[in-house]
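Quarterly update from the structural biology core.
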Amino acid sequence: MSFAFIWALLLLPLPLVLLRVLPPSDWKTGALAVPPALAAALQPAEAHVATRHVWGAGLFVVWILAVIALAGPRQSQVLEVLPASGRDIVLALDLSGSMEREDFSLDGAQVSRLKAVQRVAAHFVRGREGDRIGLVVFGNRAYVAAAPTHDVAAVAHVIETTVIGVSGKATAIADGLGLAIKRLRGRKADSRVVILLSDGQDTSGTVDPVAAAQVARKLGVRVHTIALGPADLQTAPTSRDAVDAATLQQIADAAGGQMFRVRTTQDLRAVTAAIDRLEPSPADAPPIRAWHALWVWPAGAALVLLTLMLALRARRDA
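Predicted structure, tokenized:
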């Protein structure tokens, strides 16, 4: 516990100082003859002196409590809330047919690319408390699966329950990127980021994804890309499921982000850790400390004590 205005405690001895400095009251005494019946009802002088001492002591306790309240006693506490980071992140997730290929390992079992992405991406999103997270999925076309929100648990649940086929089985990378940028355009966030994950080649043919990335940079939107899958067009140009890592690299370069090459689940987990470093989460920030004011307790005690003293005095004088 500490005091907000500890200097106020210097006022504690003020009543004692005044008693020493101020001249004593000139109480005149005398004798008065009264009838015996009236004299029997009067209290002795010693009783009046004792009452004055008790009254004075009570007032001094009230003064002490009032000064303590004025000093502002307080207690430090850690708040269980996270500040808003001012960062908006939209994940653009490829749900093309190639995401069904089972060439990733998870918990010792062979799983599809989508299952591995769902596990790692949902964990990543749940760790972004304080950020505003959204989700765009794309196949033949793109659509918003979750609008940017601080409810990261809800977005993580949407990621875990996405299925291939709801948006077609092609790979419209440009459409997915364009819709993610559109969701961030005009927002007042301090930082706006798109994380684009794809395991194939852009098949939309309507918009150049690199041109879309250049627009993103002009709008202040940074784009990180993840090239998912064992093969890419540079090393296996004839592979039907090869990822176009070169285009994803150009997208990241054009939008001021980074491209990550992912071939295994371990690579995918390393990417989320790297993005956490590039885009720090408020969850990694020091806890928020605040003061819990305690002045109301001594102030309340002083008020109650003074009220009782006045009530007893009024009853005695009645």
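Residues 278 and 307 are 62 Å apart (CA to CA).
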